[in-house]
Amino acid sequence: xxDTRGYHHGDLRRTxxxxxxxxxxxxxxxxxxxxxxxxxxxxxxxxxxxxxxxRAGLFTAIAAQGxxxxxxxxxxxxxxxxxxxVAYVRFAVGHRAHFEVMFHPDLYRTxxxxxxxxxxxxxxxxxxxxxxxxxRPTPAADGPQGDVLAAWSIVHGFATLWLAGALxxxxxxxxxxxxxxxxxxxxxxxxxxx
Amino acid sequence: xxDTRGYHHGDLRRTxxxxxxxxxxxxxxxxxxxxxxxxxxxxxxxxxxxxxxxRAGLFTAIAAQGxxxxxxxxxxxxxxxxxxxVAYVRFAVGHRAHFEVMFHPDLYRTxxxxxxxxxxxxxxxxxxxxxxxxxRPTPAADGPQGDVLAAWSIVHGFATLWLAGALxxxxxxxxxxxxxxxxxxxxxxxxxxx
DNA sequence: CACCGTATCTTGTCGTTGACAAGATACGGT
DNA sequence: ACCGTATCTTGTCAACGACAAGATACGGTG
Lengths: 194, 194
Hints:
2 copies of one chain form a homodimer.
Chain A: H1 12-27, H2 34-41, H3 47-52, H4 55-75, H5 81-94, H6 96-102, H7 113-133, H8 146-164, H9 175-183
Helix pairs in contact in A: 1-2, 4-6, 4-7, 5-6, 5-8, 5-9, 7-8, 8-9
Chain A binds a DNA duplex through α2 and α3.
C-alpha cells in the first residue's frame, strides 16, 4: 500500500503529500510552505527536501498524482459525451489542489518522467473519450480536432471560472449539475430546446 | 497623465506597476518580489510598500488595471459574437500577467473598491456583448443565461489552456486565429460544415 | 521669502522561508 | 555482527515580507 516502507517516520512521503494537498486547498499553492508541512507532520524542517528535493519537486509529485487521478476518473465516467465533461468538472472542483497545480507548469518540472507519463495518459483518455463519444470519425477541416478542443475548452473554462469564484450566483451548490446545463449548449444549434 | 505627480522619484507607482507586470510575464505571479521590484526601479526596498501597502495591494492594483483594460478591449471588439470571443482570448494572451492575476483572487483583495468597480464593468461589457450578439432575447430555461456562460467558458478555457501550454502543437502562432476555429464549434449542430 | 504640514522615500530590524551542508539514526542485506 | 545506505536532524545563510522610525522634498500659507 505504501511505496516507501516504514522507516523512521513510517510513511513520510505520503503524509507530506496529503498534508500538502490539504494545505493548498486551504490557502492555495503560493502559500504552501515546506517548513509548515514539516511541522504538520511532526518532523524537522529539512525532512521534506529529502523526498522531493525542493518546492518544485513537491509540486511535480502533486501534479503527477493529479493527472493519474484524472485519468482514472475520466476512464470511469459514463458513456455520454456530457458525462465526460461533467466528470472533468467534478474532478477539478473535488480535487482543486491537484487541478490548480496541474495547470500551472511554472510550479513544477515539466520534464519529470513520472509526470510526463501521467499527463500523457490523462490526455489520451480525454481525447479518446471526447473523439469517440462525439460520434464523429474524422475531424473537421478547421485544424486538428477543433471539436475536441472546443469540448475541452468549455469544461476547463467552466471549472476554472467556478474555482476562481468568477461565476455569478444562482448556479446552485453542485458544480456538476451546473456544468451539465452549460455544456449542453455545445453542439446545439440555436435556442435551448433539449 | 499621472495620478501621483512628480515627487522624489517622479512616477514611482506607475513605474512599479509596469515593472511588476513585466516581472510576472517573465516568471509568474508567485515569483514576484517587492524587493526585486524596488531594485529594478532603483529605489529602496521599502518604497513599494508605501504605494501598495503589501504584496496583496500590488496584485489588487494589477487586477483592477487588468479588468479595466479588458473592458476597453471588449468594448472595441467587432460586431460578431465570434469577434468578441477572439478579443477575449487575445487579451488573455497579450496581457497574460494581468489575466493570471485577475483570476486568482487569493492573490489580491476582492473587497477593494476600485477593483470591484473595474471587475463589474468588464463583467457587464462581457455579458451585454454576449447576450446581445447571440441574437437570443430571452435566456433558455436551464439556469441563468446558460448560453452566455457557455460562451464565456469556452473562450476562458481556451485562453487558460493556451497560457498553460497544455494545448497540443499544430495550432499555429496566433492564438486569436486558433481560438476562432475552436469557438466556431459553439452553437454548431454536428459536423464542421460552415 | 520663511515656515509648516504632509506625502514620499530611506534605513534598520525581526521573524519566516527555501536551500544547502554535514552529521546522526535506523533499516536491510551479507 | 557488520556495513552500506536511505532516512531524518541540526545548523547555517541569503532573501523576503512586514513593520517602525527617521530623513527628504514638495505644496500651500502667511
